[in-house]
């Protein structure tokens, strides 16, 4: 019976095994494949975002606002924290979304120095359409595995992430 061809990561591991037999390169089997998979999945997810004229970061901002619930608004610093970007990067995203009529900025009613970013109706409508397609796309990608495999992988990733990700302070 013929062996299936080596995937990209297995070829790299074989090269390292030849060049550095003194090192255990087995972690690349998991880390390398996760890294490659993340890149490939991101490409597939961004196809949907682009159909709606959004970047991945802009989609994340709209998602954070939509998840906030009525009235679909958050402070810029809170948005930055929830999307894990710097406030400078957040400002650029908000600028573009505001220019496109998807969000508005106003002074905070509770803190006159603070600002609030809110979804416009156009932003909510666009996001709801994009999110529906996004979830169908994620389902399509995940359907490459059986439901049991997907559940097992989710449990493994949840456990591993709990060990690697710093605990939330808020």
From TrEMBL:
InterPro entries: HTH_MarR-typ, Tscrpt_reg_MarR-type_CS, WH-like_DNA-bd_sf, WH_DNA-bd_sf. GO terms for molecular function: DNA binding; DNA-binding transcription factor activity. Residues 27-162 form the HTH marR-type domain. Keywords: DNA-binding, Transcription, Transcription regulation. This is MarR family transcriptional regulator. It comes from Streptomyces inhibens.
């Amino acid at each position: 019976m013929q062996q299936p061809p080596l995937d990209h990561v297995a070829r790299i591991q074989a090269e390292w095994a030849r060049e550095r037999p003194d090192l255990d390169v087995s972690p690349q089997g998991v880390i390398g494949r996760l890294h490659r998979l993340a890149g490939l999945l991101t490409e597939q997810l961004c196809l949907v975002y682009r159909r709606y004229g959004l970047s991945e970061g802009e989609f994340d901002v709209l998602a954070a606002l939509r998840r906030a619930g009525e009235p679909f608004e958050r402070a810029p610093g809170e948005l930055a924290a929830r999307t894990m970007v710097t406030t400078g990067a957040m400002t650029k995203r908000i600028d573009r979304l505001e220019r496109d009529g998807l969000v508005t900025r106003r002074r905070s009613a509770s803190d006159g120095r603070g600002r609030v970013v809110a979804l416009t109706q156009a932003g909510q409508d666009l996001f709801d359409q994009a999110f529906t397609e996004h979830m169908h796309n994620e389902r399509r990608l995940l359907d490459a595995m059986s439901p049991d495999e997907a559940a097992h992988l989710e449990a493994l990733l949840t456990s591993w992430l709990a060990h690697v990700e710093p605990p939330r302070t808020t």
